Fold:
Amino acid sequence: MSSQASEKSLEERIELFMRRNFPQIQMHGGSAGIDAIDEDTGEVWISLTGACSGCGISPMTIQALKSRMVAEFDEIDAVHATTGGSYDDGQGSGVEPDISDVPF
Structure:
């Protein structure tokens, strides 16, 4: 890892990762944002908004985000994502966790 990469925060590195790996989100009128990061538990909460809400391929985009992000970042163990509804916890529960106290 370069010294420049190690100087950036996890949030900055995730944002760069999303822009670099998923330009089609923005090209198709959607946007992706980080809602919260809990570095202690290795969890990240992502929202896909705009045209992503209701898009038929957004579940595939979410799965790709999850697998690639966990593979690329040693600090991340779980990615929770939503397209405007409840967060997908990977277990099909559709519950929305309370992230109000998660450091960001």
Summary: The two ends are 23 Å apart (CA to CA). Helices lie at 3-7, 10-21, 23-27, 58-72. The chain is about 35% helix and 20% strand. Residues 12 and 94 are 28 Å apart (CA to CA).
